[in-house]
Design goal:
seven-stranded antiparallel β-sheet; nine-stranded antiparallel β-sheet; single chain; 1 helix; 24 strands
């Protein structure tokens, strides 16, 4: 998988960590703490990173989600540049703890991170298997006295179809706990417009997958009930993503292509507003973590 590595001039060594439970297994890469595989009964559910469509699999998003206007932001009168989705995805994580069914990985601030993000922090990602559930937990520790501002989220892609003999358009997204889902409107270049609309669903719960859904890039929603199931009525296997403490869900595949995957992305915050160089201290939705504070958030993937 081709990745940009902004914090290592040359990557000498990397690690893949496999964890297992009684029903499922997972593999995690130390580069970006990225989930590389999640299987049940030898069936691979995770997108495997075909570069023809999208060369990644399940990015870790921190300390920002999606795009900044002109790739930059302001903080305390100074301007900083940051890549889309932040730098965690390109950083080499260190192993903190490993068990048969769990692994904890960590990055901390460095002189390199301070060039694009002026805060002292410790960021841990924990993957843990229990039954048919893989939990993904984020722990952010503010290692300074002043408040730090950030967003965090996941970007997992899932194979569609999961099973042979089925087609992409046979799959559905079901939101069993939703009442009325709101879509966050974006500009063609993927910035916030400040507008929202109702995202229409069949029976108030179901959206049929079609490649044309993504012609204008990602769909970002809120008020979704914090749970979504990817399934085919004629299939036997499904994926459920639960995100109880995330405000938003991004739904995406590469626009303009008939791609065999879909991403279901739990987000804590939204990207920049169109034409605005955001100030981290005042941008809506970002988490403001007080000095010496700790933030925790967990979402899960359940395989059926």
């Amino acid at each position: 998988i081709k990745r940009t590595k902004i914090f290592r001039k040359q990557r000498v060594k990397f690690m893949l960590y496999e964890i297992r439970g009684e029903q499922i297994s997972a593999v995690i890469d130390s580069l970006g703490a990225q989930l590389m595989s999640i299987k049940k009964e030898n069936t691979e559910y995770l997108w495997q990173g075909d570069a023809e469509y999208w060369g990644d699999r399940a990015l870790t998003l921190f300390p920002y989600i999606a795009r900044l206007t002109d790739g930059k932001y302001q903080y305390q009168g100074r301007e900083y540049k940051m890549d889309i989705h932040g730098f965690a995805k390109d950083s080499e994580f260190q192993l903190i703890e490993r068990k048969e069914n769990e692994v904890i990985l960590e990055i901390c601030d460095t002189p390199e991170t301070k060039k694009c993000y002026p805060f002292s922090f410790r960021f841990q990602v924990t993957y843990k298997i229990e039954g048919n559930r893989l939990s993904v937990s984020y722990r952010v520790e503010n290692c300074q006295e002043e408040t730090m501002y950030f967003a965090v989220g996941g970007h997992p892609g899932f194979q569609v179809p999961i099973e042979k003999g089925l087609r992409f358009d046979q799959y559905r997204l079901r939101f069993p706990e939703s009442e009325k889902i709101t879509r966050i409107e974006f500009t063609p270049d993927c910035f916030l417009t400040g507008k929202e609309s109702v995202w229409e669903l069949e029976q108030g719960k179901i959206k049929k997958l079609q490649h044309s859904l993504f012609d204008q890039d990602a769909i970002v929603i809120k008020d979704s009930g914090n749970i979504v199931q990817l399934y085919a009525p004629d299939g036997k296997r499904s994926v459920t993503v639960e995100y109880p403490d995330m405000k938003y869900l991004g739904i995406w595949h590469t626009p303009g292509k008939e791609t065999p995957y879909v991403c279901l992305e739990p987000w804590s915050a939204l990207p920049s507003r169109k034409g605005i160089i955001e100030d981290l201290a005042t941008q809506p939705d970002l988490t403001a973590l007080e000095g010496a504070g700790v933030y925790n958030n967990t979402w899960s993937i359940i395989l059926e």
